[in-house]
C-alpha cells in the first residue's frame, strides 16, 4: 500500500488516505467481536478461579514452578533460537509495557474493576505467549511426544468419566448379560473367521450376536444373582480394552510388549478399583478411568520407545505434575495467600445448594453427558442415513430429482428454525402426545437430536461429496452394488469429515438451553438422574437457573465456574474434532 | 484363467442380495423421510394447539392487543402480542445495528484485504462467536455488560434491559453476516476487479464501488438470515432482558406525530416473543390451558416469520449464484 | 493456437502395425458385439448407429478424435453410462450372446464379469492387498484370497515390486504402479473382458510402456478393449482397430495393420496421418 512512488514523476498521486483508513476500519471490525468476547472470557475466568484475590506472590510461585518449566520445555522442543529470542522478548517487554500502560490508565482515566496489572499481564501477554509456544513446541519431535502423551492421559480420563457416568443410567446387569451372551460370541466368531479365513464363521457372527442379545433381554429378570458392578466392568470393559491394546501392540512390537501394555494397566486398574471400593469411592468409575487412560498411554509409550525419537518428551506430564506439587508446597510452606476458586473438585462432584460455597454442578454434568450420548447416537445414525440417501441414492434430475431438491430445501429450512420452536415440538410431540414425560432425559435427547440433525446432515453431505467420483466409478465398475460402494469406499473416506461435523453439532447441542426449558427440564435437581425417564437438569440449564439468583456470590462465582466448565468441555469437543480433521487431511 | 462360458448369467440376483440392497435403500430413505416428518410435525404440533387458542382469543385480539399477561395473579388474562413485538423488534433492530455494519466490514476485510494467512486464522475464530452457548452470552450481558454500561454511559439503566441483551445478540450474529457476505464477495469474478484497477481505481474504490455492488444480493441474504436468527434468539434475552411485557409510553412530538423514546425501551426491561414462551413454561406444561396453547400460537408466529425470511433470503441468494 | 496445423503435420505418424501378427488369425469367437447402437446425451447423439463385433482374447483399440464417442461406446459395454442420468441408449450390446440392455439384466452382475481400468489411476485408499481383493470381497469369494491376490498382482506385473508391502496403502505407489494395481484389481475376480479407458494417458512414457507390455500379455487370457487417443499405441498393441469420427460414427473397423497401412476411407487416412483431428 505504498502511497508514494519515487519513479512517478509527472503522473501525480491519487490520495490513499481514505483507503488506508478504510482498511484499518474493516480490520478493526473483524476483530471487534473477538476482542469483546476475549475480554468477557478473561473476566469470567477471573471470577471462576477467584483470581482477583490471587496475590502477586501466588502468581509468581506458579509462574516459576509450572509455567516457566513448561515454556522451557516448549522452547527446547522447538529448538529455534529465533523463537526463543522472540518469546523472551515478548514476555519481558510485555511485562514493562503492560505494567506501565495499566498504571497509567488507573492513574489518569479510571480504576479498572477486578483487574490488576499482574492479571492483565497474565491474560494479555503470558497466556497468548504460552499458547503460541505450546503450538510451536508441539511441532518439534519432543513436543509431539509430550503433547501426545498428555492428550492420551486427559482424553482417557475424560472418556473414562463419561463412560462411568453413562452406566449410572444404563442397566449394568443387562449389559453384563448382553456382553457375555451376544457381543463376546459374535466378536469371537468373527475374529475366528478372519484369522482362519472361514467365511461361514464370519456370516454366522451377526445372527449369533442377535440371538445372544435377545436371550440377554429375556434372562435379565430371570437370573437372580449377579456379580458385583466392579466385576462386571472388569469383565465387560477393562479386560477387552486391555486385550485389544495388547493385541495391537503385540502385532507391532512383539508379544512381551503386548502383554506388558495390556497387563500392567489392567493390574493397576483392578487394584485401584478394589482399593477404591474399600475406601468407599465409586469403584467402577475408578476402574474405568484407570484402564481407559492406562492402556492407550501404555501403547503410546511402547510405540515411542520403539521408535526411539523424542523419548525425553514423555517427561512432560511429570514436569507439569511436579510443577503443581512444588508450587503447592511452596505456597503452603511460605503461607502465601492463595485464591479460593469456585471451580474446584467439590464443585464438580457436589449437588447444587442454596449456599453458594457448597453449590455444585455434578447432577447437571451427569444429565448433560447422558443426553449428549443419546443425541450423538441418534443424530449420527439419522444424519449419515439421510446424507447417504441424498448423495448416493437419489438422482439429481427427473421426478426423483425433484424429491431430492425438496428434501434439500427442507433440511436447509430446518436448520434455520429457532431452537425454542424445537422445544415446543418436543413438548407437544414427545412429552405430551407420545407420553415420554415432561422434562425427562429421553424427551430432551430426542428434541436435541432433531435440533442438530440438519447441521449433521449438511456437514455429512459435504464430507460425502468430497469423496472423489473416481473411487465410486472404480468400485461400480468392479460390479459393486450401491450399498457395497457406499460401505466399502464412500463411508470410510468420508468418515473423518462426518465425525468432525457431528462433534461440532454436538457442541451446539450441549449448550442449548431454550429447548430444555420448553420441554420442562428441571431447573435444579439434587440427585444425578438414574434412568432415561427420570427428571434431569443439564449444565446450561443450571447456569440459567443460577444466573437468576440475586446473591452476588452466585452471579459472579458459581455461575462463572459453570460457564468455564461448559466452555472447557466445548473446547475439548471442538478441539478433538479439529484434531480428527487435521489427522485425516494429513493421512490422505 | 478364463473359462469362457458361452452364456454368462447376467440376470438380476434374487433373494438375499436384493433384499439386502433394498433394506439399506429403504433404511436411508426412512432417515431422509424423518427430516420431512420433522417439518410436518412442527407444523401440526404448532397448528393444532394454536387453533385451540384462537378459538378462545380471536386473531384480531391477539394481533392488536397491547397487554400480555397470561398468568396474572388476580385473574383477567390478556393475550395481546403488541408489547412482545415491540420487545422483539427492539432487540432485532439494535442487534442489526451492530451485526450488519461490523459483519459487512469484516466480510470486505476478509475477502479483499486480508492475506490468505490472516484469513485462515480469522475465519475459524469468527465462527467461535456463533458457537458460544447463548445462555453464556446472556450471562455476560447480565453480569458484565449491564454493570459496565451503568457505570459509564447510562446510570439510570435497570438491571434487566434490552440494550445489553441486544449488544450480545448483535455480536453473536456477526459471523452469520460476515461468512455469507464473504462467500458472495469471493464469488465476484476477478475480471471485474481487474477492470476496476485498469481504470485506475484504488483498492478502496474497487472494494466499495465494484465488489460490494456486484455481490449485493448475497450480502442482503446474509442480513435477512442474521435478522431472522436474532428474532428467534431466546436465551440471551431471557437471561438479560427480564420478563416484563411493557407497553412503552407513546409521546407526541411536534405536529402530533407519535413516537417512542428509545431510552424507554432500550434501558428498561422488556419481553420478546421468545421470552413470553419461556415464561409460560413456569406454569402447567401438561396442556389444555389457555397459556399453554398461547405458547404454541406464539411459536407458530415465530416459525412463520423465520420461515418466510429464510425463504426470501434463499431466493435472493439464488440470484447471485446464477449471475456468474 | 495459431500454429496447430503445422504441429499436427509434424507428428504425422510412421506407424508399423507389426507387433501382433501371432494373434491375428481370425480363429477367435465374438466376445462383445454392438448392433445398431445409438446413444444420446439429452438431445445430442454420441454414438451413431454402430454395429461391430469384437473378437475374444484379442486387443481391440478404439481410436478417434476427442468427443468422437469412443469412451461412450466403451462405457456402454459394462453399462457405466447408466450412471449418467441424461444418457439414453438404443440398440443392442451383446456380451456372451446376451443383450446387456435386455430386460432382467442386472448391470451389477454384468460389471462383475467385465473389468474396467480408468484414465486416471484410482486405487482405493486401502492397502494394496485390500485393493486387489476388493472384487473378491464384494462377490463373496470364499476361496484362498491371498493366493488370488498374489496371482493377480503377478498377472499385472506388479508382484515383485510390492510383495513386501502388501499392507501399505495403494496410494503410496507411483502413478504407473497405481495403474497396474488397478489392472490387478480388475483381473482378480477373473472377468472375461477388460475395458481400458485411455489407461496410459496420465502416465509418463516409461510407465506407459510397461502398461503396454502388460496389455499384450493380458490378451492371452482376456478380451481387452482399449480406448486410446494415441495412434502409435493403438498400432503397437492392438489386433483390431475401430476408428470413430466426430458424431459417434464408426468409420472403419478392421485389422490394425489394415487400418494403419491401407485404410479404405479417405477420412481415416487423413485422421491417421494427422491431417484432421
TrEMBL record, chain A:
Keywords: Cell membrane, Membrane, Transmembrane, Transmembrane helix, Transport. Pfam families: BPD_transp_1. Its main location: membrane. Residues 365-577 form the ABC transmembrane type-1 domain. The chain crosses the membrane at residues 24-46, 58-76, 88-112, 118-137, 149-167, 173-192, 204-224, 230-250, 257-277, 283-302, 314-336, 361-390, 411-430, 436-458, 556-580. The keyword Membrane applies. The keyword Transcription regulation does not apply. It is found in: Cell membrane. One of its GO terms (molecular function) is phosphate transmembrane transporter activity. One of its GO terms (biological process) is phosphate ion transmembrane transport. CDD domains: TM_PBP2 (cd06261). It is a multi-pass membrane protein. One of its GO terms (cellular component) is plasma membrane. Belongs to the binding-protein-dependent transport system permease family. CysTW subfamily. This is Phosphate transport system permease protein PstA. It comes from Halorubrum trapanicum. The lineage of its organism: Archaea, Methanobacteriati, Methanobacteriota, Stenosarchaea group, Halobacteria.
Automatic annotation (TrEMBL), chain B:
One of its GO terms (molecular function) is phosphate transmembrane transporter activity. Gene3D superfamilies: MetI-like. Coiled coil: none annotated. Pfam families: BPD_transp_1. It is a multi-pass membrane protein. Keywords: Cell membrane, Membrane, Phosphate transport, Transmembrane, Transmembrane helix, Transport. GO terms for cellular component: plasma membrane. Part of the binding-protein-dependent transport system for phosphate; probably responsible for the translocation of the substrate across the membrane. It is found in: Cell membrane; Membrane. This is Phosphate transport system permease protein. GO terms for biological process: phosphate ion transport. The chain crosses the membrane at residues 22-44, 81-108, 128-147, 159-180, 295-317. It comes from the Archaea. SUPFAM superfamilies: MetI-like. Belongs to the binding-protein-dependent transport system permease family. CysTW subfamily.
Automatic annotation (TrEMBL), chain C:
Residues 1-18 have a biased composition (Polar residues). It comes from Halorubrum trapanicum. The keyword Zinc does not apply. One of its GO terms (molecular function) is ATP binding. One of its GO terms (biological process) is phosphate ion transmembrane transport. Residues 1-27 are annotated as: Disordered. Residues 32-272 form the ABC transporter domain. PANTHER family: ABC TRANSPORTER I FAMILY MEMBER 17 (PTHR43423). PROSITE patterns: ABC_TRANSPORTER_1, ABC_TRANSPORTER_2. Keywords: ATP-binding, Cell membrane, Membrane, Nucleotide-binding, Transport. GO terms for cellular component: membrane. This is Phosphate transport system ATP-binding protein.
